[in-house]
Amino acid sequence: MGKDKRVYDFIIAGGGPTGSTSAIYLRRKGYNVLVLEREYFPRQHVGESLLPFCFPLFQELGVLDDMKKRFVRKPGARFTNHDGTKSSTWCFRNIIQDESYLSFHVVRADFDKLLLDKAKSEGATVQEGSKVTEVNLDNPEEVAVKATCEDQEYDYRARFFIDATGQDTFLARRLGDKKSYQELDRIAFLTHWKGAKYTQGIDVGLLQICYLPPHKSGWFGIQPVGKDRLSVGLIISRKYLKEQKEKFKKSGHEDDWQMQLYLQEVREAPLTKDILEQAHIAQPLIAVSDYSYYAERTFGSNFAMLGDSGKFLDPIFASGVYLGMNSSKMFADALDVMMKSGTTEGLQAMTDAKKHIDGAYNLVEKFVNIYYDPTSFNLAELSSTSESNYQGYETAFSLVHYLLAGDFFNNYERYSEFLDMLRNPKQFSRWKNLVIDRPNLHEKTCGTTFEAIFGEIDDNIVRITSINKENA
């Protein structure tokens, strides 16, 4: 058995954006940090469209200039109904007046490696290929961690353990604290395409969200991640998936039913059928199931679950990376209090941080539930540029813009009240008459050009040859 005689201040399980961000901020506060990542980077991952509110974090972390050179820019989002007859474009420049309105679409393999390399350069000890197998939290003053690397077992010790394992939910599963969101029981499929048509706003960087028919309870998410590389994700309900799975298996597709289902949906949606008509798949299909969950107890005197390890809702609004990274920054400040002032003060600081983090997650949860509610408003059918003074809101639609841009932490109470108003049939009807039905200039793009969005990026920075993800 291998031994690591050094006692760390923090051990972080997981080297994705949440874990790397935690490591960087904690190193800058002077702490000894060990990151244990089970895979070797680069490795592919889902969640490639980032929100404008990530921008200040990229600046603080010192990766913004590299991101501008490597990744496609994202000026907004377009929502399209399932038959392609209506769409609505939401441009971040309508509410953000500085350069951060132009966000990013990223290849996660390259993005995650960029952040992990930054953590290394800040002085964090990073062990790739190291899978955490056991954590002992019995001693409130010290954590004992076991990990395996290349068939060897190693022991580590630290004052505090951070679970940033994402959807592996290492601690939540071991503590028996992982709960499912039954109402968000969906399956995600994702792959990249080459040779696609860059039309419908893709050529100017728009994230495309295409509604599927109500009985499928899902959507397509389409974003350009290169000059000739389109990421196309499909989300459908588990009920619909089970029906289709049986159909394809009975027709002889026992081994490739997932791909057959994915291609069927691509061909049936007018938007994807058009843009992918002459395209071909460029990497293996990823299938991710059971991705909507939460843990009730996400921190204690010697541990914390950050980002997706403690809660994940749904990828519809591309919120996961920002929620994880900003939560990591907030908890780094709280953990600094813990180390310098003691457990009591530290737990209070973590409680205060958790209140704001929970407020952000609860807001996103409410927004997600409204999106999937067939009786609620359809973002594809709303105008994105109307204005109203309804109930004291200077610009009613600016609140939807801010939500789509990622303003979850600062004003979650105000936005939550606004969403409650939209869910009230009588108030929504009045608001609709005042706002949605007004004549307006309907935007088709966000004033960007192909050159501004794609710049000098290289589509071949990362080549993915294999994917390991849980089957649906």
Give a verbal description of the structure:
This protein has 472 residues and is α+β, with helices and mostly antiparallel strands. The chain has three domains: 2-72 and 105-180 and 294-370, 3-Layer(bba) Sandwich (FAD/NAD(P)-binding domain), CATH 3.50.50.60; 182-290, D-Amino Acid Oxidase, Chain A, domain 2 (2-Layer Sandwich); 374-436, no CATH class. It is 35% helix and 23% strand. The chain is built from 14 helices and 20 strands. The strands form four sheets. Strands 4, 5, 12, 13, 14, 15, 16 and 17 form an eight-stranded mixed beta sheet that branches. The two termini are 36 Å apart.
Largest sheet, described in full? 8 strands, mixed
Any idea of the CATH class of the largest domain?
A: Alpha Beta
| DSSP summary, beta strand count | 20
Helix share bin: 25-40%
CATH topology call of the largest domain:
FAD/NAD(P)-binding domain
Annotated CATH architecture of the largest domain: 3-Layer(bba) Sandwich
Cα separation of the termini: 36 Å
Write down the overall mean pLDDT: 86
How large, in whole angstroms, is the Cα Rg? 22 Å
Features:
single chain; 472 residues; alpha+beta; FAD/NAD(P)-binding domain; 7-stranded mixed sheet; 20 strands; 35% helix; disordered C terminus
Write the layout of secondary structure elements.
Layout: E1 2-13, H1 17-28, E2 33-37, H2 55-61, H3 64-70, E3 72-74, E4 76-80, E5 87-91, E6 103-105, H4 108-121, E7 125-128, E8 130-136, E9 143-149, E10 152-163, H5 170-174, E11 178-180, E12 186-194, E13 207-211, E14 219-226, E15 229-237, H6 238-250, H7 257-268, H8 270-275, E16 280-281, E17 286-288, E18 293-295, E19 303-305, E20 311-312, H9 320-341, H10 343-372, H11 396-405, H12 412-423, H13 425-436, H14 450-454
Parallel strand pairs: 1-2, 1-10, 2-7, 4-13, 10-19
Antiparallel strand pairs: 3-6, 4-5, 8-9, 9-10, 11-18, 12-15, 12-16, 12-17, 13-14, 14-15, 18-20
